[in-house]
Amino acid sequence: MFLENYWYCAALPHEVDARPLRRVICNEPVVFYRDTKGKPVALEDRCSHRQAPLSTGEIRGDNIQCNYHGFVFDRDGACVHIPHQDTIPNRAHIRAYPVTEKWGFIWIWRGEAAKADIAKIPHLPWTTDAGRSPVYLYFYVKANHQLVADNLLDISHADYLHSDTLGSKSGIMGGPQPEKVEFRTWQEGDEVHSFRKLTNVEVASYPKKWGNFTSNVNRTNIQMWEAPNTVHVHLEFENNENKILINHDHIMTPETDTTTHYFMDFTRNFGLDGNQYPTDDEIYQEQHSVISGDDLPMVESQQENINLCKGVVDVPVKADKLISAVHRHLADMYLAQDISVPSYVLVQR
Questions:
Q1: Helices (runs of H) and strands (runs of E) counted in the chain
Q2: How far apart are the first and last CA of the chain?
Q3: Which residues contact 163 (CB under 8 A, 6 or more apart)?
Q4: Which H or E element spans position 324?
Q5: Could you give the CA distance from residue 311 to residue 174 in angstroms, rounded to a whole number?
């Protein structure tokens, strides 16, 4: 079971066009396409006749036709045509999902359609800021969506897993340590926040190149988690040479209990002219390389161990304060919807 009455990120805009796209969201098969006005449509990906996937069919104007026996459905899920038959039973209609496009992503609403308020979509104004340049990525992950999110909430992992690319050098045993480490977490309503600052620290190769830094910097990481599973990250790198700002948002949408659609935007205030490093393409390649080469192999191997090592218990440490706070709040949210708390939001595996 998954939380309801939330917007779930479902696709990047270029993925949804005049051809049907199948995507399983929270164990539910969904077909996406665009109507004649270019608006996205989201329906159950099944023909009510014989349960064939509509995503193998064809778009007919604003409608979609099953290629098994020719049933046609409109954007509201109503069956509007059955070959060689005038009457259409009510049972032939299928579910339509509220769907919208915002902040460079396509979102669908899981829950009561009357409650589908677009103001509840996570707020990502930096993606449309004229003084920023956004890059968008998508990954398919063979791991639970909360495990993927925990990788982002585990702030300190960047100083180990990404010590040569995105993090700092403070994670190296016996290596250079920051002058000061600040770390705190707090909750505001359904949002869980954190602040972590490393003062006078040596950062890895990417931040050095981005800001043309030749000496140590102050590295500030400000995060916010919100349901159903978005992690917002605001990064600052600063010394007397330069200051650069980055916002990157990580949106984890469950496919199943053990697979995830992982969407990301990376928005920066530097390298905006498109002619000098870093260009959008270079940022895309860097982020894709780090996530696909470091993060995803790690979380997928964690998932394999969790599947094999039944009943093992994590050992939380001080650096896990944000993960623990999010898990505690998630447990409350599941219980508030009369949903059993899933094992993946508990310390006990």
A1: 5, 17
A2: 17
A3: 169, 171, 172, 204
A4: helix 321-336
A5: 34
Token pair, residue 69, equals 């026996």
Pair type for strands 99-102 and 230-238: unpaired
Structural tokens at position 286 = 């860097």
CA-nearest of 224, 169, 168 to 194 is 224
Instruction: Place domain 125-345 in its CATH homologous superfamily.
Output: Naphthalene 1,2-dioxygenase Alpha Subunit; Chain A, domain 1 (3.90.380.10)
CA 144 to CA 66: how far, in whole Å? Answer: 32
- Cα–Cα distance measured from residue 224 to residue 220, given in angstroms and rounded to the nearest whole number: 14
CATH of range 6-120; options 3.50.50.60, 3.40.1180.10, 2.102.10.10, 2.60.40.420: 2.102.10.10
Residue type at 6 in one-letter notation: Y
Q: Are 333 and 327 contacting, i.e. CB atoms less than 8 angstroms apart?
A: no
Per-residue pLDDT of the chain (349 residues), as tens digits, is 899 999 999 999 999 999 999 999 999 999 999 999 999 999 999 999 999 999 999 999 999 999 999 999 999 999 999 999 999 999 999 999 999 999 999 999 999 999 999 999 999 999 999 999 999 999 999 999 999 999 999 988 888 899 889 888 777 777 778 899 999 999 999 999 999 999 999 999 999 999 999 999 999 999 999 999 999 999 999 999 999 999 999 999 999 999 999 999 999 999 999 889 999 999 999 999 999 999 999 999 999 999 999 888 888 888 899 999 999 999 999 999 999 999 888 754 3
